[in-house]
Amino acid sequence: MFLSNRNFVFTCLLTCFTLITSSVAVLGQSQTPPDKVAITSSDGPTRVQVGENGVLQINVAPKDARAIQKRGWVRYADFGARGDGKTDDIDAIAGAHAYANAQGLPVKADAGATYYIGPKDRTAVIRTDTDFGTANFIIDDTEVQNRNAAVFLVSSMLQPFKLTGITSLKRNQAIIEAALPGPCLITVTDSHVKRYIRFGLNQNNGASQTDIFMVDKAGRVDMNAPIIWDFDQITDISALPIDEKLLTITGGRFTTIANQAESKYTYYNRNLTIKRSNVVVDGLQHRITGEGEHGAPYGGFLNIGDCAYVTVRNTVLTGHKVYNTIGAAGKPVSMGTYDISANRALNVSFINCSQTNDINDRAYWGIMGSNFCKNMVYDRCVFSRFDAHMGVANATIRNSTLGHMGINAIGSGTLTVENSTIRGGTLVNLRSDYGSTWQGEFVIRNCVFVPSGGRSVSASLIGGSYAGDHDFGYTCYMPERIRIENLRIEDGNHPDNYAGPAIFANFNPKLKDETYQEKFPYVKTKEVILRNVTTASGKPLRTSENPFMFKDVKVDVN
């Protein structure tokens, strides 16, 4: 039944004021102003207007409200969207979602419509199932008012709250003492400890030690995504209740008209941001047009953070053109720019996804970047890259093909690569800017490795670099155990002096004998297990170009 005018206004004011935040600090996204909506019902026409301080003022005529309730879903046209590809429809789109959120109704875009989204600082907040269908959405980034404002924000009605009484945590701790309303995501920070102190052209002073993990109502930690640091002191800890009902977003053909800004680290985040747990994105497409000689980078059209259980499937995305700038070290650097980003997220899966441009075209940056995530999965994906900047705990790549940027990661737990083809510079690259560290194991089975996409190179399976003279904020490890089964190395194209593929790249050319001392010692791999590894060159697998560095590694060959 339709609410009375007074109660309806109160309900909407209570539920529709949303603070849009982002955890993608590393990619440049920051807080944006609150998205505010006030809904009334009077005998005037149904309309969306922009009031004082940018507040959307929505009036829904009672007869229109009854018609929408009878239909069972909300259309953008109900709130004035033209869908003609020329009129800026973002206010109508945001108004439609605000009303749908208040009434608990799904939203459906009109089939074949083209919704133009111009420069306004406006975000449509999604809290109900949304079917974009075959509609087109043109997102014009050429002259935006706020490059940090998401176009769509998938948000929860549940609010985070501070936890009290917890003063410390231990790595792999199994339970926390807290009164919780149900399953929660726990985010904890110790600002006195710095981790991920980046080395190289994009050097920085690191990030405060942080972690995100899941607990049930009794405070039991999900040990599939365990606590990865000791917190001897805690400067901030909060709990976010997890939405248990699945929210689905289907369809949609999105095209971004790329920004023409100066090429520097001013990230654009005009995107679909997901900050709600238990979400499925199915059948979305995103393309990019208008990339020129210069432009600012993007923080991800799909931007997933502070949530758990997000699945993206049957989705087509697009790699962004690479632009250069001057990095923190005062030297030219290629800027990372992404169509996918995931930050502080657990159990994120990409299933049967691909990209529009050639995964081997080096003019386009690797499509994904992530930080502080756990249990990430690629399954049946064709992408240019998998990447974990500031750590991933457990990752799986299966039934997939990865292009010119391959697998780049640091982290912990188990990295599993199976039934996949990898066309990067190495089979797995341990990112040297974060210490080439992986505290755990690699399991690689039933794969094909095409070194550098088939270019003439000396192949190495595990890449990275570690000089031992930089403090990354943690002890750096190589995988304790590497197990490789049924690997075909397509190294038929190689230099004349090629001695055969190496298990390990030359991580430190200076470490030739006992006289070289690492200030910050590197914990080397203990064991490599090889079963049925074959090469197109016919040359046998060797340990490394630097045998001294890996002299204590046990290599078990079938």
State the gist of this model.
With 558 residues, the protein is mainly beta.
Low-confidence stretches: 1-34
What does the radius of gyration come to? 25 Å
For the residues shown, what is the average pLDDT?
Answer: 93
Taking the sheet with the most strands, its summary is:
25 strands, parallel
Strand content: 35-45%
Helix content class: under 10%
Give me some keywords for this one.
single chain; 558 residues; mainly beta; 25-stranded parallel sheet; 38 strands
Please explain how this structure is put together.
- With about 550 residues, this protein is mainly beta.
- Among the domains are: about 160-240, no CATH class; about 390-558, no CATH class.
- The protein has three helices and 38 strands.
- The strands form six sheets. It has a 25-stranded parallel beta sheet that branches. Strands 11-14-12-13 form a four-stranded antiparallel beta sheet, with no helix packed on it. A three-stranded mixed beta sheet has the order 1-3-2.
- β2 and β3 form a beta hairpin.
Explain the layout of strands and helices.
Blueprint: H1 5-15, E1 37-40, E2 47-50, E3 56-59, H2 62-71, E4 74-75, E5 84-88, H3 90-103, E6 107-108, E7 114-117, E8 124-126, E9 130-140, E10 152-155, E11 161-162, E12 184-195, E13 207-215, E14 236-241, E15 247-257, E16 272-275, E17 279-282, E18 285-289, E19 299-313, E20 316-317, E21 324-326, E22 332-334, E23 338-351, E24 354-355, E25 368-379, E26 382-398, E27 401-418, E28 421-422, E29 426-430, E30 438-449, E31 460-463, E32 476-477, E33 481-489, E34 502-504, E35 522-523, E36 527-535, E37 542-544, E38 554-557
Parallel strand pairs: 1-3, 4-6, 5-7, 6-9, 7-9, 8-10, 9-15, 10-16, 15-17, 15-18, 16-19, 17-19, 19-23, 20-24, 23-25, 25-26, 26-27, 27-28, 27-29, 27-30, 28-30, 29-31, 30-33, 31-34, 32-35, 33-36, 34-37, 36-38
Antiparallel strand pairs: 2-3, 11-14, 12-13, 12-14, 21-22
